[in-house]
Amino acid sequence: MGIFNAFFFLLFLFCYEETKYVPVLNGQARAGPETEEDLSVPVDPDHKSAVQSDTKAALAVEPSSLHHELDFSIAINPWQKRLALWTPTPEPIWPYFYRPFYVLFTFPTVFFTGLQYASGVVWLTITANVLSLVFPLPPYLFTPEQIGFMSLGPFIGNLIGAFYGGLLGDRSILYFSRKNKGFYEPEMRLYILHLPTLFMAGGLIMFGATISRGMHWIYPSIGGAFFGFGLGSIGDATLTLVIDSYRDITGDAFTGIAFLRNAISIGIPFAISPWMERDGLQNMFITCGFISLGISLLIIPMVFYGKRSRRGLAARYYRLVEQQGHNHSG
């Protein structure tokens, strides 16, 4: 492994070219209607949508005006410059250090997603550690290979959950949007998470209780699959919620979410053995199940108050977007 890592370190050092791209922004005038009277002409209701789409097309920037041909007469940078350690650019780097924390702790939707994501990783860490601690012992006496196969249940559940929260979620928002007179709200992705919430909490309890009683390995596998289903569904839906709500600051939001996930889960492996010895395996997972249920039920206030928070923080969001634009343009 050391030789393998050393080889790729040298390969990266001498062959990985600079990937930072510093764009040149050229302003383009928008093409609009000739006069205001063009927009005030009476419209037949049957053709209203067609006229509106034509108006939007007229107000948009023509894609062809933003296209630039490559000038192949410009020489490529020399090898030393392509492998330069530093590439100075106009924007300051320090906002990238504090802005993810600002976004995480001032936008409730981002913090909610980070909490859901972090709790899922915590339960995943606990279940994985319990498998390696308990299953080599009686009554299971599993080999390392058999312990590895015990992860198949959560994997299958997570895969199904990804389709539930992803594919079914995309289709469900079409239905809910039609019910909302054609208007889509990002919080609609949370409407179908009642089942994953129950499956995640119930799966954790089933996983721990069946292992504690020495039941056949298929039962904790099923419990792990239930947990994996909830993890995949809630994770997909909440992360997409952030993308749909704050698309232009997604990078900062995801960085903050990753920080919260790691900050909460980093100490969990050290607490598992003392916790298990003090409360027992069954009580430990019952506690995990109810904590999971409480965190997942935060979906309910997010459904009711998420839109209100987005409206209240709209000015702050657009100010961040504008700051990013100024940084990238120099």
Topology:
Elements: H1 2-15, H2 48-59, H3 79-82, H4 95-106, H5 108-134, H6 144-149, H7 152-179, H8 194-212, H9 218-245, H10 250-265, H11 268-279, H12 281-296, H13 299-312, H14 314-329
Helix pairs in contact: 4-5, 4-10, 5-9, 5-10, 5-12, 7-9, 8-9, 8-12, 11-12
CATH topology of one domain: Growth Hormone, Chain: A
Number of strands: 0
> Cα-atom Rg, whole angstroms?
26 Å
The CATH architecture designation of one domain is Up-down Bundle
Main pleated sheet: none
Please bin the fraction of helical residues: 55-70%
CATH class of one domain: Mainly Alpha
How would the global form be characterised?
A: globular
Q: How large is the count of helical segments?
A: 14
Please describe what this structure looks like.
This protein is mostly helical and 330 residues long. It has a domain at 104-329: Growth Hormone, Chain: A, CATH 1.20.1250.20. It is 68% helix and 0% strand. The protein contains 14 helices and no strands. α4 (95-106) crosses α10, α5 runs parallel beside α10 (250-265) and α11 (268-279) crosses α12. The two termini are 43 Å apart. InterPro entries: MFS_trans_sf. One of its GO terms (molecular function) is transmembrane transporter activity. This is Major facilitator superfamily (MFS) profile domain-containing protein. The chain crosses the membrane at residues 96-114, 121-141, 147-169, 190-211, 217-241, 253-272, 284-306. It is a multi-pass membrane protein.
